Amino acid sequence: MNVWTKMMEDIFSNSDFTEVFEINGLSYTCIVSPVTDEISFTDAGLESGENFTLDIKLPVYRMPKINEKLRFRDKTYKISDIVTDSANASIKISVVALSKGIGG
Q: What residue spans of the chain are helical by DSSP H?
């Protein structure tokens, strides 16, 4: 096991750093970025929505997909982007409030 893999195992096995979210009944252990509440201007006026990322360790049983809804901290959000790290050891899921639109 290389140093990077050992570090990932240590971090993702420490409950002080991790939380859990759910997509379609499947649970994923994740590390959460700071949550920001951004206000944006839309045709309907001002719109407020939380934005943050969830990092999960690979491999996973089922890969999340852009535009999927997920449940985290008793709220439902949408996935706006997914990026795999250069070591192919984890993915960063960008999450936005349900009220925000997502491009295809």
A: 3-12
- pLDDT (tens digit per residue) in 53-90: 999 999 999 999 999 999 999 999 999 999 998 888 89
Query: pLDDT tens digits, residue range 9-32?
Result: 888 888 888 999 999 999 999 999
| Contact criterion met (CB below 8 Å) for 59 and 43 | no
Nearest to 64 by CA among 13, 103, 98, 30: 30
Residue type, 2: N
Question: 3-class DSSP state for residue 99?
Answer: coil
Element (H, E) at 7: helix 3-12
**Cα 71 from Cα 103, distance rounded (Å):** 21
pTM of the model: 0.76
Q: Are 55 and 34 in contact (CB under 8 A)?
A: no
